[in-house]
Specification:
It is a single chain. Helices cover about 65% and strands about 5% of the residues. The longest helix has 18 residues. About 55% of the residues are buried. The strands form three sheets. A five-stranded parallel sheet has the order 2-3-4-1-5, with helices on both faces. A three-stranded antiparallel sheet has the order 8-10-9. The chain is globular. The protein is mainly alpha-helical. Strand 9 and strand 10 form a beta hairpin. The N terminus is likely disordered. It contains 47 helices and ten strands.
Length: about 950
């Protein structure tokens, strides 16, 4: 809302009455309804965003809110979590103490876990009082704060937390990505602050001058373009100058020297730093210059040093840049504060508005700025600041060949890599640009840059960077190091053949250290695990493991065990896979999810449950998404479709958050299968479309096979058996069906699809694969039972189908057993053994219903329709589909979460009670809110208490 001409409020809020009224309503609604909201105040610099934000904070505090205000700083926007620090540490009752915040930053070195810890702290406070978290100048927020702000509002949607941001207008639409992440989950508002009306500007001038403005002054106000800060500063500049008086005795405008708008930038790949955030209005520079000219020389120098340091700075740091002791500059500090240019909170000094800092900064010559920024960097490091705190200054003062700057960038990249790998990659890319390729350190810096790019998920950039380094003909030993460093990127890009070619070339060249040689051998084995010759891959893995042990290189050891585990799984040797992944999880606990999956292939689900509980209690793993995948597969195998889907959804969200898609395609394929089991053909189709979209991002053979299988299943479901068989043949062209570990328990439906299409050759081939898999895993009931099932289907042998059921009854997978019983019942009906069929089919139907597979249960019921079948079919459970709204729409886990929340549990304590992650609890809670049409924990508690289900 812009240009309001309504009733005018007190000084500083002239013309902002409508926006203030809306903010007052928003503050009241969050407190009343107990649910979160996000609002963004947007407008040009000086338009009044900060003033309106301060008033909103005052209103919230008056309404009983706990508040925290942070200000993002242009010269600190590289420091992880620096922007949110003020929100958490400020206010009368800080959300975190300084020590707790330091501990949080020190020990939570993964983004997802750090954000979850922040959510727990805020949620705990919001359980007692509404919370307002305000961040000024979000356009300068650091990467980690932005990441947190994209996650936290939705995570805390059910708590009374109001997120209030301000951001400058411009083509980058600052803060919009935060609003986009919250939109659809909680209320989102944008306040666009435009120029003040002439009436408001006139009243503002009267407030400032103490008298009504004359014609020259009104002309000056027109030049301010409705910007209240610019108008006030220009008018105060007149007062400080003691400007000439007109005939009326009022202050008038005199001519000022012209200044060019000033903007400086230092650009690196993905890295943009500005000494001033944008063009500074000419009139403001002139007005501030006029005020500064009236100050003492020491004060003028002190302000310029402060402008170089940033909007906020320490008195001692500015004094050091001045070359003076703090005691000498006390008078200068007093004068700067007295004239309203600086504010002093007892810890740090700050310019009253960043436009003031920019105006002072603009008056410093470019060469002086560069030198001062470099000096500031040295000062910050020397006084004990972290390298990342000084990097912004060093970048603004760095020149090509600056070894000191490069060293600082490397140290800073190491520090921030665990929490902001994208920033670390940017810093190292810039370091590589600063150093000459002729320098010996260029290759070392490049190797570090490759590692950071891979951690950031920027694998293509890592490949490009590595090839640029290789084009410079590095020494042979360096050649091998670079190829080893690149291995992770090629693996992530599914370029297994290229990885194999490069590692073999590096090994052939020789001249590598034992450690690098062991890594190259392990990477080669990993690449070969994706191929068809798994015997060669296994031999390569054994050789790599021996080399890793000999070299005592941990990284090579991990890679070699991972390669051998992959080879074993792909060849269908479950016992060997479990041996390798158990060893791997001992060496590196973050690979515990792989051990759980290996246990699942061996039907050892009880041990998997115990491992998952232990993994959930540990804080060391940085692979939460893979942990969720293992948990989802555990639920799927146990026949708990609702819980499985919740974990798949949560896993997809986490992978999206960190932008590292690993299991997105497989997850969508499984969710499509779950939808079909529930009788939701439309939902399965939607998941197929999503799987195809994600396949375009990661088109590896396994993903292509999974999507091909899903296409076959849906074609068969729709009655197009010919297309289903064709899809299965295309899948086998990628690789044998049983090679794809995700599909192994689904080979039975694939055989049935082939038989329905009249393709006996395909059915026999699939059955032979299942038999070979069982032969490699004779101790696994599921493997043995599925082999008997496919053989019985292919041969039409009731005895084999009965044996399949007997074998699967000893296993832990109720859905696979129900499928086998369904096929046995079908065969018994064909043989005229209807009584036996009725018993078997009733057991199958009941198992499907318990699992939530009401669509599959309905299919069994239809199969048994006929003479004598109605009564038998009616003897089992009904298998009604759940409604989509209301308490009956909730899954069992959702009801547990609802009751725990109603009893006062936080997401963390509910997660601990249910042995799941807080992320999964949030997924359940989001679904509960949608199904019950509630928006807050308070409303949910009312619903649960009304049912008498609070226990």
């Amino acid at each position: 809302m812009a240009g309001s001409g309504g009733p005018l409020s007190r000084d500083g809020l002239r013309g902002r009455e409508p926006e203030l009224a809306e903010l007052r309503t928003l503050i009241a609604s969050v407190a009343r309804d107990g649910c979160g909201a996000v609002a963004l105040l947007r407008g040009e610099a000086g338009i009044g965003k900060s003033t309106l934000l301060a008033e909103a904070i005052a209103l919230a505090e008056g309404a009983g809110y706990s508040t925290g205000l942070g200000k993002a700083d242009e010269l600190h926007h590289l420091v992880p979590l620096s922007s949110l620090a003020g929100c958490l540490l400020g206010g009368a009752r800080p959300l975190l103490s300084g020590d707790a915040f330091a501990d949080l930053a020190r020990h939570h070195d993964q983004r997802i876990r750090l954000v979850e810890r922040l959510a727990e702290v805020i949620e705990a406070r919001a359980g007692h009082t509404p919370v307002l978290i305000a961040l000024d100048d979000v356009q300068w927020a650091d990467q980690l704060s932005r990441f947190a702000l994209r996650q936290l509002p939705a995570r805390l949607q059910s708590s009374p937390v109001l997120w209030l941001l301000t951001g400058r207008s411009g083509p980058t639409a600052s803060g919009e990505e935060i609003l986009a992440a919250a939109r659809g989950r909680l209320p989102v508002s944008t306040f666009r602050l435009g120029p003040l009306s002439p009436a408001a500007m006139s009243r503002l001038a009267s407030d400032t001058l103490g008298t009504e403005a004359d014609e020259p002054t009104r002309i000056l106000l027109e030049g301010a373009g409705g910007n209240p800060f610019l108008a006030v500063e220009l008018l105060q500049g007149l007062l400080f100058e003691g400007g000439p008086q007109g005939a009326s005795g009022r202050t008038t405008v005199r001519d000022r020297p012209s200044d060019r708008d000033t903007k400086i930038e230092v650009q690196g790949v993905g890295l943009s730093l500005h000494g001033t955030a944008g063009s500074v209005p000419t009139g403001l520079v002139a007005g501030v210059r006029g005020r500064i000219d009236s100050l003492g020389p020491a004060t003028r120098d002190f302000l310029r040093m402060g402008a170089v340091l940033g909007r906020q700075f320490a008195f001692a740091d500015a004094a050091a840049l001045c070359g003076q002791s703090p005691a000498v500059l006390i008078t200068a500090l007093d004068e700067a504060v007295r004239t309203g240019l600086l504010e002093d909170d007892g810890k740090l000094l700050s310019f009253r508005h960043d436009l003031l800092r920019q105006a002072v900064y603009s008056d410093i010559s470019p060469s002086a700025r560069n030198a001062l920024h470099r000096a500031a960097a040295h000062r910050l490091v020397a006084s004990g600041h972290r390298p990342i705190d000084a990097v912004s200054h060093m970048l603004l003062g760095a020149e090509a060949g600056d070894e000191v700057a490069v060293a600082l960038l490397r140290q800073a990249a190491d520090d921030v890599l665990p929490v902001t790998p994208g920033l670390a990659a940017d810093l190292m890319t810039r370091a590589l640009e600063l150093i000459s390729p002729s320098e010996a350190a260029w290759f070392d810096i490049g190797e570090q840059a490759i590692g950071c790019l891979i951690r950031a998920g920027r694998n293509r950039e890592a490949l490009t960077t590595c090839d640029r380094l290789l084009d410079a003909h590095p020494p042979l030993a360096v050649f091998g190091r670079l190829q080893a460093a690149l291995g992770g990127a090629l693996w992530n890009l599914d370029l297994a053949e290229e990885l194999c070619r490069r590692t073999e070339a590096a090994l052939a060249v020789g001249s590598t250290s034992p450690e690098v040689g062991a890594r190259l051998r392990a990477l080669r084995a990993l690449a070969l695990s994706r191929g068809r010759d798994l015997d060669t891959a296994r031999a390569a893995g054994e050789e790599a493991l021996a080399a890793a042990v000999s070299a005592e290189d941990r990284q090579a050891h991990v890679l070699a065990l991972a390669a051998l585990g992959e080879v074993a799984l792909n060849s269908g040797d479950g016992s060997a896979a479990l041996t390798r992944f158990t060893a791997l999880s001992v060496v590196d606990g973050s690979f515990r999810p792989e051990e759980v999956v290996a246990l699942q292939h061996m039907d050892r689900f009880d041990e998997g449950d115990e491992l998952l509980r232990r993994a959930a209690d540990g804080a060391g793993s940085h692979r939460q998404a893979m942990l969720l995948w293992a948990q989802a597969q555990q639920h799927l195998g146990r026949g708990r479709l609702d819980d499985a889907e919740a974990h798949f959804v949560t896993m997809e969200a986490l992978e999206d958050a960190v932008q590292i898609p690993v299991q997105q395609v497989n997850s969508r394929v499984v969710r499509a299968w779950i939808a079909l089991q529930r009788g939701d053909r439309a939902g399965a189709g939607e998941q197929l479309m999503a799987a195809r979209q994600r396949l375009a991002v990661k088109p590896n053979p396994g993903n292509r096979a999974a999507v091909g299988f899903l296409e076959a299943v849906l074609a068969g479901h729709d009655g197009d058996v010919r297309v289903a068989a064709q899809s299965l043949w295309r899948l086998q062209e990628i690789g044998p069906f049983m090679r794809w570990r995700l599909l192994r328990t689904w080979v039975g439906p694939a055989v049935r699809a082939a038989l329905l299409a009249g393709d006996r050759a395909l059915a026999e081939d699939l059955s032979a694969q299942a038999a070979a898999y069982a032969e490699r895993n004779p101790e696994v009931p599921t493997a043995m039972g599925i082999a008997a099932l496919t053989a019985g289907l292919t041969a039409g042998d009731v005895g084999l189908l009965e044996r399949s059921v007997t074998l699967l009854e000893a296993g832990p997978r109720p859905m696979v057993l129900a499928e086998a019983r369904t096929e046995l019942g079908r065969a018994l009906l064909t043989a005229g053994r209807t009584t036996e069929a009725a018993t078997v089919l009733a057991l199958a139907r009941d198992a499907f219903v318990v699992s939530g597979a009401v669509g599959a249960a309905a299919g069994v019921r239809r199969l048994h329709q006929g003479p004598g079948g109605a009564s038998a079919a009616g003897a089992g459970t009904t298998g009604r589909a759940r409604p989509v709204q209301g308490w009956e729409a909730l899954t069992a886990s959702e009801r547990k979460v609802a009751r725990l929340v109603a009893a006062g549990h936080t997401n963390r304590s509910a997660a601990e009670a249910l042995f799941v992650s807080p992320h999964t609890v949030n997924t359940h809670l989001t679904s509960v809110f949608r199904k019950l049409t509630v928006t807050s924990r308070v409303q949910l508690t009312h619903v649960v208490l009304a049912r008498g289900d609070a226990e």
